[in-house]
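Dear colleague,

Thank you for sharing your sequence with our group. We've completed the structure prediction you requested, and as agreed, I am returning the results in plain text so they can be pasted directly into your records. Please verify that the sequence below matches your submission; if there's any discrepancy, let me know and we will rerun it promptly.
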Amino acid sequence: MRRAAAGVLAALLLGGGALLALTPRQPSPGPQSTEATFVRGMIPHHAQAVTTAQALRRRSGDRTLRSVALEIELGQQEQIRQMQGWLRLWTLPPVDPAAPLPAAHARLMGMASPAELNALNTRPVPEAEALFLQLMIRHHQGALVMARPALEAGVHPQVGLLARQITATQRGEITTLSALLRRRAQTPLSPPPGLDPGSPAPTHHH
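Please find the predicted structure tokens below.
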């Protein structure tokens, strides 16, 4: 009886192996693909978020802000490693996260200008804390716009999953950052163009 059961199990295992062997492998995304465009844009975008969070943590003594900044920093560093790994897997050139982007392109992505980043390090700490919140809200809103094409049907499943993770995480963080900004009675910056009307946006106070 046991021998018969073992034989059935072996046949099932062999059959499963044959099915796996027959499943076609998904081709790697090409250099002009939605997946590659998403990854190449999101790596420098994430890198700026890491830089911004580190600048805040160097100066601020606010425990809540420092905790939020650390979460952003660690989460986005991990996703950068994941995306660089995909580029290697797809035999596409790696992206230099520190390479400057054209100013107009960076603005569309909700990124901070060099002057805004410099102000994080030079303004009085309370002002720098409010600026961090303003910049990071706009930055996250830019990520929501950038992630949209990677949410479409037909995108490589792993890339689609990351785009959904980024969208969910950054929507949640926008809500948190907006509450912290309101507590400081500060006004948010204008969101980047193309922001989905359904995305969380800070309330303007007049």
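Summary note from our side: Residues 72 and 85 are 20 Å apart (CA to CA).

Kind regards,
the structure core
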